[in-house]
Each structure stands twice: as C-alpha cells, then as structure tokens.
Amino acid sequence: MATATPSPEPERRADTPPLGLGMVPGNAELVVYVLALFLAMLVTWLSDGLGSGAWLDFFKWATAAYLLSRGIAKASRVFEY
Questions:
Q1: End-to-end CA distance of the chain
Q2: I need a surface site. Which of 17, 56, 58, 79 has the fewest CB within 10 A?
Q3: How far is CA 78 from the centre of its chain?
Q4: pLDDT tens per residue, the chain (81 residues)?
Q5: Domain spans of the chain?
Q6: Inter-CA distances, 2 with 5, 47, 51, 59, 80, Å
C-alpha cells in the first residue's frame, strides 16, 4: 500500500511578520502619536495658562486626525474590480 507524501510547506522569510499582528514592526505612527500626546501633557502640566481642558482638546483632535489618517491610508489600499 503506497502512502501519500505530504506536500512541503512553503518557507516563510525571516523578515516577514506573522499575519494577524496589529502593529507591523517599522511602523512608527503610533509611537509618534503617543509621544505627541505625552509632550502635550508635559506642556499643559508645566504651563500656568494651560490646563487639563487644553490637553483634553488636543487629545480629542489628535485622536480624530490619527483615526482619519489611518482610514485614508487603509482606503488607499482597497482594490476595486
């Protein structure tokens, strides 16, 4: 009785991340976003004229801009047939 030999699995390159990861290494957008929020927090903490309301406004608009830019970036990769 002959046994079927299983087909070899294709080898994955070492520099490609596994699928399903949220953050791809080398994508620094989220890091820049978090650093900008941290810098705004420091400025509002050290300034006498700015308070938590100013930081909350910056956080709100920076988050909206970040989400909008991610949506535009994802929409640019959609292929329509």
A1: 48
A2: 79
A3: 18
A4: 566 676 666 665 666 655 555 555 556 777 888 888 888 888 888 888 888 888 888 888 988 888 888 788 777 777 666
A5: 29-74
A6: 9, 80, 78, 66, 47
Are the beta carbons of 38 and 62 closer than 8 angstroms? no
Structure tokens at 59: 């956080």
> From the CB of residue 17, how many other CB atoms can be counted at a distance below 10 Å?
11
**CB 40, CB 59: distance < 8 Å:** yes
Contact (CB, 8 A) for 62 and 33: yes
Contact present, 43 and 51 (Cβ < 8 Å) = no
